[in-house]
Amino acid sequence: MKPEYDLAIIGGGINGAGIARDAAGRGARVLLLEQGDLAQGTSSASTKLIHGGLRYLEHYEFALVREALSEREVLWSIAPHIIWPLRFVLPHREGLRPRWLLRLGLFLYDHIGGRRALLATQTIDLTHGPEGEVLKPAYSKGFVYSDGWVDDARLVVLNARDAAMRGADIRTRCKVEGLHRGEGLWHIQTSQGTFTAGAVVNAAGPAVLDLLGRAGQATQQQMRLVRGSHIVVPRLFDHEKAYFFQLPDGRIFFAIPYEEDFTLIGTTDRDYTGPTSEVRASEEEIAYLCAGVNEYFQRQITPDDVVWTYSGVRPLVSDGSGRPEAATRGYRFEVDGRADEAPLLSVFGGKITTYRHLAASAVDRLAPLVPAIAGASWTHGAALPGGDFPKEGQQDLIAALRTRRPDLPERAVRRLVRCHGTFVLALDGPVGASPTQDGEDFGHCLCAREVDWMMREEWAVKADDILWRRTKLGLRFDGNQTARLEKYMAQRRA
């Protein structure tokens, strides 16, 4: 019996979408199944960073840090509309990690990952310049180093879209209700019908062990679910650098410019045992992050200043670490199935920065078992949709859209480019050549044409899909604007 698909991937987060893209590009007939929206869970709840993980050096995770650092400029080059460099200010704090140790860590950070275009670490005098004037006077010395910013949810959507452009079948709101082997194939029962596949990838993230159980498979692998929470407050500083702060309990947190008018603060690390559908930032976590901010910034904040919170459950490989922040962010694969059985590859762990390399490695593992997969990984230099312009060329694309549509506010121009890249100039893209082609404006220059584009090309179904994942306009929309958008989308679906 010939399967409908060579490979079925369960899980529409960054790992699942990345594997779908790589496998589809190597000739496999790919099915991607996601029970909700793309990136609805962990993959839209990161700290929005493409980074090596400076703090992982303390835990001797040199291989993981090297792998992640080597990916920063690769990802920047293939998606320069949603990924760009970000400089981080690391103030020295008396009584915590000594300056020589910070400098040694940053020296390693600069040199073990093949940095080329990103700027090197510098020592900084915080008594002069905008980086220090917002801090308390106790912080007079520090360092500035490089990492990268990413729109995490859009990274997932663009990988899925690229996979679809290469023939993959992407199905959202499609819950897997059962799966079993039979006749040398996988039979997958879903809310949209039953599918057959020659192989399955379990990329279910926090639900990876649950899915194995439903497939009747045993594993010795243990997972550690860790909740990471973030808060968003009105902008705390006017420059475009971010901050990396140390706390007396040994943890660190970031304060990052966010959506022009806000500051993103996080993250926490708490072991989590509840339902992943109900993960929320606790009052304790919100207070903890506010207190951390207040130890560094002159401007003090309280939980009443928080305009939005979000939390995600990170599925980490259980490595016996005593504290959740020390648990490895590495990943592992497990392949199940005898020679005469359809294979199942499960993905344990991972982080957003290493998703592309993880995907390539996963497809390499499957290649001997799935005859349709041909050739080597190709994603290292292939632009994601909208990212086909030089990595330093974002401002040129912004200028081109400004020239084409001088009626658009500057903020809207920047948002559109950083959302859609070169598609903003396409004749059939999300932005019309004139205002008359854009249709109804639901607020903040989110127009019907762009909404239709996201529904047609990016699997958006509900207002939340657009306001909180494909854009972050949920921070700006009021109740009436959201209701108008939801009504319009319901009419389009009908």
Automatic annotation (TrEMBL):
Domain FAD dependent oxidoreductase residues, every copy: 6-321
Top enzyme class: oxidoreductase
InterPro entries (UniProt xref): DAO_C_sf, FAD-dep_OxRdtase, FAD/NAD-bd_sf, G3P_DH_FAD-dep
Catalytic activities: a quinone + sn-glycerol 3-phosphate = dihydroxyacetone phosphate + a quinol
Obligatory cofactor(s): FAD
Molecular function (Gene Ontology), one example: glycerol-3-phosphate dehydrogenase (quinone) activity
GO biological process assignments: glycerol-3-phosphate catabolic process
EC code: 1.1.5.3
Alphabetical UniProt keywords: FAD, Flavoprotein, Oxidoreductase
GO cellular component: glycerol-3-phosphate dehydrogenase (FAD) complex
PROSITE patterns in the cross-refs: FAD_G3PDH_1, FAD_G3PDH_2
Keyword Oxidoreductase recorded: yes
Listed PANTHER family: GLYCEROL-3-PHOSPHATE DEHYDROGENASE (PTHR11985), GLYCEROL-3-PHOSPHATE DEHYDROGENASE, MITOCHONDRIAL (PTHR11985:SF15)
Family as reported in the entry's similarity comment: Belongs to the FAD-dependent glycerol-3-phosphate dehydrogenase family.
Protein name: Glycerol-3-phosphate dehydrogenase
Lineage: Bacteria, Pseudomonadati, Pseudomonadota, Alphaproteobacteria, Sphingomonadales
